[in-house]
Design goal:
By secondary structure, this protein is mainly α. The protein has a domain at about 55-130. Helix content is about 70%, strand content about 0%. It contains 7 helices and no strands. α3 runs antiparallel to α4. The longest helix has 17 residues, at about 35-50. The chain is elongated, with a radius of gyration of 20 Å.
Length: about 130
């Protein structure tokens, strides 16, 4: 285990004789205590709920913001289900996407879509309106 960490982490676990103790120290160092972990998850959830795409932002950049929050949440042990992400995206878009969102909702069941499908459809629409 000592060979798998950098020298700063090595200093933390150098005196441990049992791998489990080393692992607990490393986990607490990276994730924080349970209280810190819950606070981080709360902050991520708040950011996710308040996330809105800026008027001049591209769909790809907005998608990266969503993925960043999804990955941060997953790293703390709480995965976001795809349906939650798909429901969030249309509600977070600027007015210029209203026609497309309505068309998508009318044409198919949006809750059964994949995030990549929705983003791809929005990017196609974005390219069309930017031309």
């Amino acid at each position: 285990m000592f060979n798998g960490v950098d020298k700063n982490m090595f200093r933390l676990i150098n005196n441990c004789t049992v791998d489990k103790d080393s692992w607990n120290i490393l986990r607490t160092t990276h994730e924080g205590t349970t209280k810190v972990k819950m606070l981080k998850l709360l902050l991520i959830t708040t950011k996710f709920e308040s996330l809105k795409m800026k008027y001049d932002e591209f769909v790809q950049n907005f998608h990266m913001n969503i993925l960043e929050l999804e990955n941060a949440s997953g790293a703390l042990g709480e995965t976001m289900i795809e349906e939650k992400l798909v429901r969030k995206i249309p509600r977070s878009l600027p007015k210029r996407f209203d026609m497309k969102v309505t068309a998508i909702e009318e044409a198919q069941n949006i809750t059964s879509m994949k995030v990549e499908e929705l983003i791809g459809s929005l990017q196609t629409f974005e390219m069309a309106i930017n031309d």
